[in-house]
């Protein structure tokens, strides 16, 4: 299981929905980006890249992501969501897919060992 599947399983556990495959795919593409300055992050362009890999139309994937975010927000593990939100109080309203994807991407990046730490362990 890759790191995206791990965190998604921690949040929801309902990995059988098609939208969770879309979420994993989008997170994999976002992980390739420089996450500093994500203000210019464009979910539409990421969904187009995903279409090239999976054949799923961006509009279909976007709706699927909306359903997944709703599922996570309503049924997901709130403790894990708080970790993703750095222990802060969770927003009162469900986030947009783009916002949750950014939060998860930052969380995963922070958990990854830095190059310096990897060299120290070697």
Number of domains: 1
Mean pLDDT across all residues, rounded? 83
What's the tally of helices?
7
Estimate percent helicity.
Answer: 55-70%
The oligomeric status of these chains comes to single chain
What sort of overall outline do the alpha carbons produce when their principal axes are compared? globular
Beta-strand residue percentage = under 5%
**Strands, count:** 0
CATH architecture: Orthogonal Bundle
Largest sheet: none
Which CATH first-tier class would you pick?
Answer: Mainly Alpha
C-alpha end-to-end distance: 24 Å
Q: Are there runs of 5+ residues with pLDDT below 50, and where? A: 115-122
What is the C-alpha radius of gyration, as a whole number of Å?
A: 15 Å
User: What is the element string, with H for helices and E for strands?
Assistant: HHHHHHH
Question: CATH fold name, please?
Answer: Arc Repressor Mutant, subunit A
How does the helix and strand content classify structurally?
Answer: mainly alpha
Structure description:
The chain has 122 residues and is mainly alpha-helical. Helix content is 67%, strand content 0%. The chain has seven helices and no strands. The chain has helices at 3-11, 18-31, 43-54, 58-75, 78-84, 97-111, 115-121. Mean pLDDT is 83; it is low at 115-122.
Key terms:
mainly alpha; Arc Repressor Mutant, subunit A; 0% strand
Blueprint (SSEs and pairs):
Blueprint: H1 3-11, H2 18-31, H3 43-54, H4 58-75, H5 78-84, H6 97-111, H7 115-121
Concise synopsis of the structure shown:
With about 120 residues, the chain is mostly helical.
């Amino acid at each position: 299981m890759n790191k995206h599947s791990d965190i998604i399983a921690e949040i929801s556990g309902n990995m059988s929905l098609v939208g969770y495959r879309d979420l994993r795919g989008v997170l994999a593409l976002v992980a390739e980006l420089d996450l500093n300055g994500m203000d210019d992050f464009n979910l539409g362009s990421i969904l187009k890249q995903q279409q090239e890999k999976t054949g799923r139309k961006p509009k279909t994937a976007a709706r699927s992501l909306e359903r997944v975010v709703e599922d996570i927000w309503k049924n997901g593990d709130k403790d894990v969501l708080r970790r993703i939100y750095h222990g802060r109080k969770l927003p009162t309203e469900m986030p947009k897919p783009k916002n949750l994807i950014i939060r998860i991407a930052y969380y995963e990046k922070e958990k990854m060992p830095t190059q310096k730490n990897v060299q120290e362990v070697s």
